[in-house]
Design brief:
It contains eight helices and 15 strands. It is α/β, with parallel strands linked by helices.
Amino acid sequence: MTNVLLRLRNAAIGRRALRGTGLLLLLGFGASASAPAAEPKAGEKLPRRGDEIVVCGQLFHTTAPVVLWTDPGGYDAYRVDRRFGPLTDVREKAKVKERNEVTIGFGVRKVPLTPEQSEQVRGGGWDLPMLQNVVDQFVIHYDVAGTSRRCFQVLHDSRGLSVQFMLDLDGTIYQTLDLKEGAWHATKANGRSIGIEIANMGAYPIGGTDTFDRWYRRDPNGQVQILLPEGELKAERKRGEDPTWVPRPSRPEPVVGTIHGQKLQQYDLTPEQYDSLTKLTATLCTVFPKIKCDYPRDPAGALLTQVLPDAKYDQFQGVLGHYHIQTNKTDPGPAFQWDKVIDGARALMAK
């Protein structure tokens, strides 16, 4: 790392490493603390590695591919016009019959704050210690949209909702907002949580849908692949650069399981999604110490497959599914491999 980067890192965020996963608080890549510092030059560019997420304006490594809302090809939940559809000058939208504006789908986190903290949030935003004291849940969803592109179109353009992260089939993580923002993704959990929408067509009653026929098929070798609408998966993305790569579920057959007492079937996530989600989980549980790296369990210690009772929900700090919060939700579904993600994240954090 150059002397310039060391100087900027030390001035902006101090020389503090995130232990456990080997993740470093950006803007630095682990150069020797004894290296001499130099004055930065005006206009000098700071390189990014492409795996960073943003928390209170600060950058943290995940070791997974990340596209920010500020990047080319990113998805910006701050925008006030639709991302897709006809272009309209937002200054002129009041004069047109077919309005192109969207409902703002995020807001200030609604959590108990002192008057001084409330004024700070209104006037300049959260600082990291204050946010770390508030955020204690990571909520996992499937998007029933199939791709992150389509997910953003539905959430932002059509429904006026938001989520901090989306996870595409190839393992690309899209961050749409700084994590200081309260995204609207999980009702009562919005104030204290971070959410992720995973590209997956979801879970259904046995024999109750033709969705699987439209989104999954076997290739000539008998392997199941996910069918993508034309242009949905960007060619420039991590796995999309390999012309031979096709998205496949981690397991070849639909997985059957029970949620809220209902038997459901679902195709699993892709291996690339599990890899990136595990790394992101380790990152969030490190940056936010109140997010315990564990999921809701029943009295026997097994995964809870129904909504958390109110008293237990209020006390729960960790990683949970949307169905743990609401009885009308089943995501991330019966195919989701909780132990694969949690055990993998714990192993990264222990390094």
